Write a sequence for this structure.
């Protein structure tokens, strides 16, 4: 072991840390990862990579295919296919991750067991939960039924519903109205709704030139890249996109087909031919049933609190929670890039603790988020976040981060290459 | 303690230094992972990426690039903004980590992400 060990940078090894039997387990330690989205897949991949393939890593997700939310608004504008954004979760098997396609029904944090709908319970030494978000249908009266009937769609979790919303848009007559409603922050992907409006507007402008696009935002202003989106909308989509802040959707009444009427907390109701209602969001269902959201507090029980240094749950031992499901630190967006960053901090912390080492005292996170403003041009927001031990939270590093000067085709190229790199980083 | 075990008869002082060295190596590995979503796992760019790979590039070159981004002397899109998030010691760790990685097949360069 001494021969292959090299204390120089770039070659720290799991074996050098004392290895998987360090805690007297007498067997290989096992980490179970719940969720095969960006956070979960990244955690599984890096647990294998950083343990020199020594750790037993099991990933559970009901879906065989990862469908990227990043870039999926392009599908709504007809600028790419869903297939181009899809990758098999089982790619992780090449890296020694055992992928189980099943539904987690319960997590027994006392007995350290993950219970599955079909398969046998999985024992874990460490658990990483990356459950994503759940849509709070009950936050908009009538939405659950209108969604179930396929009339009013969310398409916020990319997949079949993305294609269904695209079909509704394609069937919309010229002169029709497409409306998007945005919930109060925090929600998954802050700039996503504004990107969606922009990309769909780019398609409408040439395919349905008399159409209107209404954006009803529960927030007082655009929540991300505000100045850039406003400029693009004024320059390119004047008379097409109409932005209305402080419009909180509270009820929907579908018509005979797609669309219908949306009611607001304060303003008069509005009608749309295609209605894309994004309700409030909260941590994925399993986080709630496993007791990882807690109750009350600033999170109001919607999100999972974590110790930010390690992403360990304060509510269950040996459990980490990552991705969109967590109660975010200041200035931390619920983004795919951020979930990828959480996953690496959690993976490193789990490995360190399994081998009896202290976790990284100063973890860092980056975020780069690209938004299309049409099929070919992109803007970004970027930030660097460091863990501040005294405050036990992350802070954006002063002087770092920023946004694009304006939309460019160069950044569209980077956006695609960023996405392909991210998919490879998480799935191998 | 575990490192001391691994080192067998190594003195406590050596073990201590080894432990610190390993801590720094782990910190470098984690820091480098913050670059991976764009530049590829361990700095290995995906095929035909417009975003350059970092693996196997000389440490001095990477340090100069990052410092030029920090000082605003090198134009770019996200990198002038992200580079300012890392201090000098972190830049040293990053550069040495990537320099120690096996180089990827000819990496696309000249882009300014």
């Amino acid at each position: 072991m001494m021969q292959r060990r090299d204390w120089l940078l770039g070659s720290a090894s799991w074996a050098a840390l004392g290895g998987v039997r360090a805690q007297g387990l007498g067997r290989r330690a096992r980490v179970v990862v719940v969720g095969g989205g960006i956070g979960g897949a990244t955690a599984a991949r890096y647990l294998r990579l950083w343990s020199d393939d020594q750790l037993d890593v099991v990933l559970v997700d009901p879906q065989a295919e990862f469908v990227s939310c990043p870039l999926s608004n392009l599908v709504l504008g007809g600028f790419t296919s869903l297939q181009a954004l899809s990758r098999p979760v089982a790619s992780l098997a090449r890296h020694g991750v055992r992928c189980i396609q099943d539904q987690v029904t319960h997590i027994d944090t006392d007995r350290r067991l993950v219970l599955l709908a079909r398969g046998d319970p999985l024992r874990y030494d460490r658990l990483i939960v990356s459950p994503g978000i759940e849509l709070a249908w009950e936050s908009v009266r009538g939405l659950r039924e209108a969604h179930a009937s396929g009339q009013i769609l969310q398409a916020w979790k990319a997949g079949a519903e993305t294609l269904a919303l695209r079909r509704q848009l394609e069937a919309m007559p010229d002169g029709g109205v497409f409306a998007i409603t945005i919930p109060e922050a925090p929600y998954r992907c802050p700039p996503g709704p504004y990107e969606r409006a922009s990309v769909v507007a780019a398609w409408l402008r040439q395919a349905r030139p008399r159409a209107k696009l209404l954006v009803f935002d529960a927030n007082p202003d655009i929540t991300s890249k505000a100045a850039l989106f406003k400029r693009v909308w004024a320059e390119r989509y004047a008379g097409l996109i109409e932005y209305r802040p402080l419009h909180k959707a509270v009820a929907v009444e579908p018509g005979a087909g797609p669309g219908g009427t949306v009611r607001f907390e304060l303003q008069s109701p509005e009608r749309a031919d295609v209605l894309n209602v994004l309700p409030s969001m909260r941590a994925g269902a399993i986080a709630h049933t496993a007791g990882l959201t807690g109750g009350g507090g600033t999170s109001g029980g919607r999100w999972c609190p974590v110790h930010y240094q390690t992403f360990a749950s304060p509510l269950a031992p040996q459990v980490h929670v990552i991705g969109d499901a967590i109660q975010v630190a200041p200035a931390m967006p619920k983004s795919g890039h951020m979930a990828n960053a959480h996953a690496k901090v959690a993976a490193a912390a789990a490995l360190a603790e399994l081998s009896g080492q202290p976790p990284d005292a100063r973890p860092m996170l980056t975020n780069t988020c690209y938004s299309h403003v049409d099929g070919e041009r992109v803007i970004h927001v970027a930030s660097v976040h460091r863990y501040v031990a005294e405050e036990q939270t992350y802070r954006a590093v002063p002087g770092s981060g920023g946004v694009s000067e304006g939309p460019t085709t160069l950044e569209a190229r980077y956006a695609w290459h960023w996405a392909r790199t991210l998919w490879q980083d998480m799935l191998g | 303690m575990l490192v001391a075990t691994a080192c067998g008869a190594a003195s406590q002082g050596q073990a201590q230094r080894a432990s610190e060295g390993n801590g720094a190596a782990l910190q470098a590995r984690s820091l480098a992972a913050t670059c991976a979503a764009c530049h590829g796992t361990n700095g290995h760019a995906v095929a035909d990426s417009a975003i350059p790979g970092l693996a196997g590039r000389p440490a001095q070159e990477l340090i100069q690039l990052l410092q030029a981004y920090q000082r605003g002397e090198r134009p770019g899109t996200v990198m002038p903004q992200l580079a300012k998030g890392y201090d000098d010691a972190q830049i040293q760790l990053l550069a040495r980590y990537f320099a120690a990685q096996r180089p990827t097949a000819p990496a696309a360069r000249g882009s300014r992400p």
Chain A touches chain B through 59 residues (CB under 8 Å). Confidence is low (pLDDT under 50) at residues 1-12 of chain A.
